Amino acid sequence: MGVSDQPIHVLHVEDDAAFAELVSVYLERDEDAISVHTAATPEEGRELLTAREIDCIVSDYDMPEMNGIEFLERVRETYPDLPFILYTGKGSEEVASEAISAGVTDYLQKERGTSQYTVLANRIHNAVEQYRSTRALESSRQRLSLLFEESPLGIIEWSESFEIARVNDSGREILGYEEGELAGTSWETIVADAERDEVGDIVEQLQSGDGGFHSINENVRADGESIICEWHNRLVTDDDGNVVTIFSQFQDITERQTRQRELEQHRALIHAANNAIITVDESNRVQSANAAVEEMFGYEPSELIGEPVTTLMNDDTATRHEAMFTRYLQTGEQTRAWNDIEVEGQHRDGSRVPLSVTFGEVVQGGERLFVGIIRDITEESEYRQELEWTNAVLSKLLETLPIGVLAEDESREILAANDHLLELFDIPEAADDLVGDDCERVASELSEQFADPDGFLERVNEIVGEDIPVDGEEVELADGRTFVRTHEPVELPDGNGHLWTYRDATAQRRRENRLEALNRTAQELINAESREAVAEIGVTAAQEVLGLNANAIHLVNADGTALVPAAGTESVYTLIGDPPAFTEGDSITWRVYETGEAVAIDDIHDDPDIYNPDSPIRSELYLPLGEYGILIAGSPTPDTFDEADLALGRLLAGSIVTALEQIEQLERLRDREQELSEQNERLDEFASIVSHDLRNPLNVAVGRVELARETGELDHLDAVERANERMSALIDDLLTLARQGSRVSDVEAVDLRGLASGCWANVSTADATLDLQTDRSISADRSRLQQLLENLMRNALDHAGDDVTVTIGDLDVGFYVEDDGPGVPAEIRGEIFDAGYSTDPSGTGFGLSIVEQIVSGHGWDITVTDGTDGGARFEITGVDFA
Q1: Pair (479, 592) in one structural domain
Q2: Are residues 312 and 168 in the same domain?
Q3: Where are the alpha helices (DSSP H) in 261-412?
Q4: What does the alpha-carbon distance between residue 259 and residue 138 come to, in Å, rounded to a whole number?
């Protein structure tokens, strides 16, 4: 961060309180980053310096206790580098000269006007920026120096020509040289002859900035002894990216390399992690951290600034550190050496990290800081545990793996085999007996078990001859099984070898095939357009998905009681006899339907009272289909259904239910479309009636009213009244058609004779007669049936006169309503049900249209013919009797 990004705390020492307040207002108003703390006297200013962190001092010259230069001298005793600006109204060359000699950072004379405060703010910014940059540079130098001198690793700084510029004590000790002996010598001095070409390439990469940052190579000590060292090389660049110098950290890993040869076949070489470097103040809080902290502890460096250093430690380590650190600050005594302390740190994720820590103290700008170099020694501390674990795992690995394993050396001699391999190939020998045998001979004997013996041997020889890695290669056996084979070329201490594994994938392939069948079925069910199609697809799918040879799928009928087997498919009941009961009770079928829980029966022959003991079906699986019924699958083999079958069966049942729900939704959409179509037709019809039939009586009413106004003759109003009655009747019938539509919802058993009697009482019948020749009850919507009867009765009265006889009687499939009037001419019988059609000038023409709509809503049919006595006879058929 630059000074513009950090708040600046300014101490202003000024005995004139009003002027001090004015300076504070201008500095804090114009510069958000500046915070002013005012002191009236130098002594008060010194107390503020002690109490809080100050970035710059602005002081007057003339003050009661001491002048500004004397105050400066006092400040410099404790804070030799703190920016100090002399801001005074007593300006003279003498004062300026004295101030510069005393070490003042800047000198500014008070003037008139407010522009001086802007100048003062700029001077403060410049002084603090330079001060902070100097401190940061000094801190960086001190950390680098501590890293160089105190690091337990060897460190070399190289010149531009890659000669040794300097080397630390650890480096000289590793290489066996005295101080000053290596300075100015080439890198070749410490590199073994056999590795100079390789190291030369690394040097070129470092010089060009293209790599070479890590290497392990053989080095030569001063006494000629060869050692193995691990090197971490770092480029130091300036702001323009130019390489300023190159540092190399290295350590002698000869002993570690020797130990690691025991694990050459089981693990890669251990690479040392880069060091984490932090600085900590006296309050035990982190002031800076480098990038390696994130890799080691999981924190970004910026996250740690201001946090306690114990954030990086577990509770026990943190407690010991606090006690040790507190004692040192109080007494100056160390309770233990601070060089290469082994402690236990804590990663951000809570895991513990073994560490080696070196701490050193530095003084920066009068402030004590502690620099820590932290090295992750996880690999070193875990080495023995890992070696023990690896040996234990290797000793048990062959016998615990669920696959067949065989290892052979370069000469095709068997090195190891496990019992599972013997089980797969039915080999009678023990695993230990195969060790030392000729693998080529064993393979030749085993080839007869494969579907293609010659192909098996040719492929094995090809893999071995060319050292081909193989992963997941399938081979088919003569008995129908499928094995999956892998081969891995391996390096052995005395040459190359081959590691083979074989795994029986027969069950896995079967599961995959069944899942593919389930996926295909799901797609087919999505495209099914009827319940019957769903049933057909479901039965076929049950055979493929569950691997069975006899199945039945059932759907619930509309009445919710009976089961319907899929048409055209062999039913399980052709093999086991009568189907299980699907009525409410304790039957398996009903329990599955009610509870929604699948049931598998391993051997149905155990219950001969329910199942046919001669049936080839041995096991059954019942799967719920929700409200639609159940799926019943049968198998000729006992103990067929396992958890995988149940899981696949539930998925299949779920797909069937989804398909049925989709079909129901489509049916509802079709019904809705039909309903909307009917509504649109009625709207068109209404528009025609409104535009035509209502217009005539409306014109009559308007014309008669005008005539009454012009002539004063009130007889015209009689015609207006008749027109209004005509319009009212039309509107009532229109509302009936619009509100009720054609659909019937509430169906119940209705006594036709009783309902007809009530209807006759509602109609103004004068001298007319009702003859009831029925005692039946029919399934109908009572209110809609009442409207139908009343309209037919009114129609008879309107067309046959007040003394008409209306007869209601039974038909084989319905009932009839007839009168003894003039009847309906044959040539108009096809039109009388049209909305608005009427042979009576006073009629609306909607009565029979409403009758036809009610009949259609019930799913009935209506025809008109001649009555018994020559009148009109309306026959309603397709009626259900209750």
Answers
A1: no
A2: no
A3: 292-297, 301-304, 315-331, 378-400
A4: 43
Q: For every residue of 697-708, which 3-state class applies, written as one string?
A: HHHHHHHHHHHH
- Vertex 321 angle, CA 319 and 324, to 5°: 110
Cα(110)–Cα(379) distance, integer angstroms = 66
What is the C-alpha separation between 7 and 510, in angstroms, rounded? 71
Same domain, 536 and 663: yes
pTM (2 decimals)?
0.36
pLDDT tens digit sequence for 254-309? 887 777 665 553 332 222 336 888 888 888 899 888 888 888 889 998 899 999 88
Task: Count each helix (H run) and each strand (E run) in the chain, helices first.
Answer: 26, 32
Strands 805-811 and 769-773, sheet pairing: parallel
847 domain-assigned:
yes
The predicted-structure confidence for 509-557, as pLDDT tens digits, reads as follows 877 887 888 888 888 888 887 777 777 777 777 777 776 654 445 554 4
Mean pLDDT for the stretch of residues 405-415:
90
* Residue ranges making up the domain that contains 245: 151-263
- Say if CB 355 and CB 345 are below 8 A apart: yes
Nearest to 421 by CA among 502, 508, 507: 502
CB 40 within 8 A of CB 60: no
How far is Cα 664 from Cα 687, in angstroms, rounded to an integer? 34
List the structure tokens of 388.
Answer: 């023990």
CATH code for the domain of 597: 3.30.450.40
Strand order through the sheet with 154-158: 164-167, 154-158, 243-252, 226-237, 214-220
How far is the C-alpha of 469 from the C-alpha of 490, rounded, in Å?
Answer: 10
Q: Is 704 part of a structural domain of the chain? A: no
Kindly state whether residues 656 and 762 are assigned to the same domain: no
Q: How far apart are CA 35 and CA 727, in angstroms?
A: 90
Residue 331 placed within a domain: yes
* Residue 407: both structure tokens together: 């290892």
Query: What are 371's two structure tokens?
Result: 């620099």
Among 797, 684, 815, 670, which Cα is nearest to 737's? 684
CA atoms within 13 A on the CB side of 327: 10
Q: Is 24 in a helix, a strand, or coil? A: helix
Q: Round to whole Å and give the CA distance between 254 and 176.
A: 15
Same domain, 19 and 167: no
Taking the C-alpha atoms of residue 290 and residue 292, their distance in angstroms, rounded to an integer, is: 6
**CA dihedral sign of residues 352, 358, 359, 363:** negative
Number of separate domains in the chain: 6
Closest CA to 275 of 156, 353, 357: 357
Is there a single domain that holds both residue 296 and residue 424? no
User: Measured between alpha carbons, how far is 548 from 542 in angstroms, rounded to an integer?
Assistant: 7
The domain boundary residue, chosen from 504, 534, 566: 504
Q: Are strands 164-167 and 154-158 parallel, antiparallel or unpaired?
A: antiparallel
The verdict on 431 and 476 lying in the same domain is yes
Give the full edge-to-edge strand order of the sheet including 352-364: 286-289, 276-281, 367-376, 352-364, 341-346
SS3 label, residue 294: helix
What value does the mean pLDDT of the chain take? 79
> Could you give the count of Cα atoms lying within 13 Å of 750 in the half-sphere of its Cβ?
20
Q: Does 686 map to a domain?
A: no
Q: Average pLDDT in the 471-492 region?
A: 91
Q: Where a domain ends, among 84, 107, 139?
A: 139
Say which amino acid occupies 39: A
Asked if residue 650 and residue 540 are part of one domain, the reply reads yes
CATH of the domain at 455: 3.30.450.20
351-396 residue pLDDT tens: 888 888 888 887 766 788 888 888 888 777 766 566 556 545 554 6
Cα 107 to Cα 99: distance, rounded to the nearest angstrom: 8
Mean per-residue pLDDT for 715-738? 64
CATH of the domain at 95: 3.40.50.2300
Each residue of 207-220: b (16+ CB within 10 Å) or e?
A: beeeebbebebbbb
